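Our consortium's second objective concerns turning raw sequence data into structural hypotheses that experimental partners can test. To show how far this objective has progressed, the report includes one record in full. It was chosen at random from the queue rather than selected for favorable results. The single chain below, 115 residues long, was entered without modification.
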Amino acid sequence: MEHEKLIQEVTSKVLNIPKDTITIDSRLMGGMSNYTYIINANNDKYTFRIPGKNAENFVDRDEEVYHINLIEPLNLNNETIYLDTAKGYKIAKYIEGQPLHELSPYDYLEKAAEV
């Protein structure tokens, strides 16, 4: 896989585990400017984001950190383990389930409004 060595190197340093214990499960499709993979590391699943070409033109990563921290108490987002604001690499806990965009969003409007 094209990004496998990068994912293993960064994840190994962040989680302080051997590179050869980190595997890529699959790639999540969707998103406009990133490559996002589901990875297995240390018997846990994570997502690993690698920005695509010119992604820095779409996102201010310092703002991203601010917003992640802002909504953390609401438990709306998966837990961010690592975010490199210079390179855009992000590791977060993986949550099993189906993305809302694959479901009928109208079925979830009330729940979203409650939040």
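The partners drew two points from this record. Residues 4-15 form the longest helix (12 residues). The CA atoms of residues 88 and 106 lie 32 Å apart. Both points have been shared with the crystallography group to help prioritize constructs.
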